[in-house]
Amino acid sequence: MQRRTIMTGATTGLAALATPALAQPAPAIRWRMATSWPNSLDALQGSAVNLCKRVGQLTDGRFEIRCFAGGELMPALQVMDAVQAGTIECGHIMSSNFIGKNPAFAFDAGLPFGMNIRQQAAWLHDGGGLELMRALYRRSNLIPFPAGNSGAQMGGFFRKEIRTPEDLRGLKMRIPGLGGSVMAKLGAVPQQIPGSEVYAALERGTIDAAEWIGPYDDEKIGLHKVAPYYYAPGWWDTNATMSVQVSLPAWEALSPGFKAAFEVACNEQFMLMPTRYDARNPDALRRMLAQGVQLRIFPRAVMEACYKAAFETYEEIAQSSEDFRTIYSPWKRFLESSNPWFRVAEGNMDAFRFSHGIPG
């Protein structure tokens, strides 16, 4: 009897030693995220929704972020203001839509004739770009996290053909960001219109052309039904990085574990968003072409004029904006250093592959 009692006590003691002490659960955190995208755009809005879900999964539901589409909490172009004011904790946006506040915000999304998607990722994560952007945003009480990229975009839908740079004069085009500044330099009349209103503006003739994203999203909002000419490339968005802007006080209040979960979720969507576009854009383009859309490539003379105007615009902005100048110099050095490598390796390989069909 005594031996059985001793063994029972020993077993109980071993079990207690083998069972880890359960940590006290962290206080539940509930955030709200507003986006600039309608629910119909599953690649954009869907990515934001999945990011929020992923944060919940990584924290066993202790960090909850509710995601609201553009217009549900505030107008799409007021998301940044709401985060900055602390009305919401975070917003899923493309920062080039907010260059009216500071032209240097454009670097976060990508500049016209700038880096491709891989160069942008390298500059942000391993070339000092993210540190520069966070130093800039900190003064606005924000911290940005790259959280998606559409890749190179299309040049948009036009009511008339563009044959020379002169055809841009007087053209009313929905095009935000520095792309709009470059077009204005060439005589166009840029319009900043939320995505939900682009179709109606083009259909009514309020505008003559509209850029949005690429075939998958352009088809969804029906631009191919109201303008016949579909141009490429979208030189103003050689990559288009989407960011989650977070209220700095809200971020600093998070535990290290919750911060890590949030960053992991953002990094996942930074990788997954372009894969969705790359998988869906080809079929969407084929469907629109089958419906009579006329695909056009901007003539070389138009591209050269836009390229020249773009870098003239950057130099002009750099003269008047210290913030822009501070980021532009290292950004330009990185671009000049990176371009030769991409030209030698992937540029030549892609040019060869794309000039051939698939054998067999």
Strand content: 5-15%
Count of helices? 13
Could you name the ranges where pLDDT drops below 50 across 5 or more consecutive residues?
1-22
Order of helices and strands: HEHEHEHHHEEEHEHEHEEHHEHH
Q: How helix-rich are the residues, as a percent range?
A: 40-55%
Which structural class do you get from the secondary structure elements? alpha/beta
- Rounded to the nearest angstrom, the distance between the terminal CA atoms is 83 Å
Report on the biggest sheet.
Answer: 6 strands, mixed
Biggest sheet strand order reads: 7-6-8-5-9-11
Give the CA-based shape. globular
Mean pLDDT reading = 92
Secondary structure: elements and pairs:
Elements lengths: L1 H17 L10 E7 L9 H14 L4 E6 L10 H7 L4 E4 L12 H4 L7 H10 L2 H10 L3 E8 L6 E3 L13 E3 L2 H9 L3 E3 L3 H10 L4 E2 L4 H6 L8 E4 L8 E7 H5 L3 H35 L3 E4 L2 H21 L1 H33 L6
Parallel strand pairs: 1-2, 1-3, 6-7, 6-8, 9-11
Antiparallel strand pairs: 3-10, 4-10, 5-8, 5-9
Characterization of the model:
This protein is of the alpha/beta class. The chain has 13 helices and 11 strands. It has helices at 2-18, 45-58, 79-85, 106-109, 117-126, 129-138, 177-185, 195-204, 215-220, 248-252, 256-290, 300-320, 322-354; strands at 29-35, 63-68, 90-93, 142-149, 156-158, 172-174, 189-191, 209-210, 229-232, 241-247, 294-297. The strands form 2 sheets. It has a 6-stranded mixed beta sheet with strand order 7-6-8-5-9-11. Helix 7 links the parallel strand 6 (172-174) and strand 7. Helix 12 runs antiparallel to helix 13. The longest helix has 35 residues, at 256-290. The protein is globular. The termini are far apart. The model is unreliable at 1-22 (pLDDT under 50).
